[in-house]
Design a protein that fits this description.
The protein is mainly alpha-helical. It has a single domain (2-201), classed as Up-down Bundle (Four Helix Bundle (Hemerythrin (Met), subunit A)). It is built from seven helices and no strands. Helix 1 (2-33) packs antiparallel against helix 2 and helix 2 packs antiparallel against helix 6 (160-185). The termini are far apart. The chain binds fe (ii) ion (2 copies). One fe (ii) ion (FE2) binds next to helix 5 and helix 6.
Length: 207
């Protein structure tokens, strides 16, 4: 009886420590171990770095249901939810705008003039997927708002799988096909313009 009780205690503590570490320390570790992100002078590198940050957010979100099942809507879950809300309502939105308003419109005439129909089709696919990703975010956001306020949510209804499934293949297509194309197609002047537009989008607005 006693050894079985002891074993359950050890299991509980190790799960708690493991999940807590995975939800809270990932960002700190990544900021220590990973080299600094590119700046606006390397806008394509910056877009890849954004994908890395989105992937880390997805990984944290995917761990949320298990964490909540073990520990309820605790402080760790609230912090993870609040960070995701902040990220996807600011940087995540800017990232889509960078692509939809600047990168894609720059690439389309180049692809058209070269007869690169596969790239034109790819841009059409990516735009349609942005709509699906926005819908996945609209479905997830209310759950995260509840968690950020430390209120309980039904973990089976938490649509984190749908959200990650919308983002991951999309980012892989951009990393593997679109950004390499952009890197050989855009002139230095076009890259500089893209970087300026991305910087402008992130400037705090007065008034
Ligand atoms: Fe995209
Ligand atoms: Fe992207």
């Amino acid at each position: 009886m006693y050894p079985r009780f002891l074993l359950r205690c050890i299991c509980f503590i190790s799960i708690h420590i493991g999940t807590t570490l995975s939800l809270s320390q990932e960002h700190e570790m990544s900021s220590i171990l990973v080299s600094p992100a590119p700046d606006f002078s390397d806008p394509l590198g910056l877009l890849v770095a954004c994908h890395g940050r989105i992937e880390r957010q997805c990984a944290t979100l995917l761990r949320l249901p298990q964490h909540i099942e073990h520990f309820g809507p605790d402080e760790q879950a609230a912090q993870a939810a609040a960070k995701a809300l902040t990220y996807f309502n600011s940087s995540g939105r800017h990232h889509h705008q960078d692509e939809e308003e600047d990168l894609f419109p720059m690439l389309e005439p180049i692809a058209r003039s070269r007869g690169d129909s596969a790239i034109l089709d790819l841009i059409g696919e990516l735009l349609a997927e942005h709509g699906q990703m926005d819908a996945a975010w609209q479905a997830l956001q209310p759950f995260l708002e509840e968690l950020a306020a430390s209120r309980p949510v039904e973990t089976k209804a938490l649509p984190v799988d749908r959200f990650a499934a919308a983002y991951r293949p999309h980012m892989a297509k951009e990393n593997d096909r679109l950004l390499p194309y952009a890197s050989q197609a855009l002139s230095p002047a076009q890259r500089a313009h893209l970087g300026r537009m991305m910087a402008l989008r992130r400037q705090p607005r007065g008034g």
